[in-house]
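thread: overnight batch results

M.L. [08:02]
morning all. the overnight job finished for the chain we discussed friday. pasting input first so we're all looking at the same thing
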Amino acid sequence: MEWTGQQQILFLLQSMCLGVVQGVLFNIVTGIGRSFSQSRRVMWDVLFGPLTAIITFCGALIIMDGQLHPLLLGGSVIGMLLEHLTIGHWLSALIVVICRVPRILIRFASAFCFRLGHFWRGSVQTWRKKLKKQRK
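M.L. [08:03]
and the structure it wrote out:
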């Protein structure tokens, strides 16, 4: 099937948008993976491959009526590069921070409860000693 020049430019722009979506997905997956240990990080990296394949396949079905064309692959690569060079680093850092905030809050809350428990235990012991002195 022959495509006109306008259709090819439209397919290229649509596939570039698909590449930007894949780049954002890559930043999300690797950002979540960076907040975990090394063994879980590999799992998140392996997860990215099938997700990208599914997105590319769905893009080929929607944009190009199921035909795999070099415009789709080239546009996806260009879109991923554009996303990586523009907002990729900031988005990745933001996702890492968002994933680490709950851990920090949990650590802060547990340390606060631990100190509160020590304070409470010390206060109760002091109170008991005063009671014993008053009874004598």
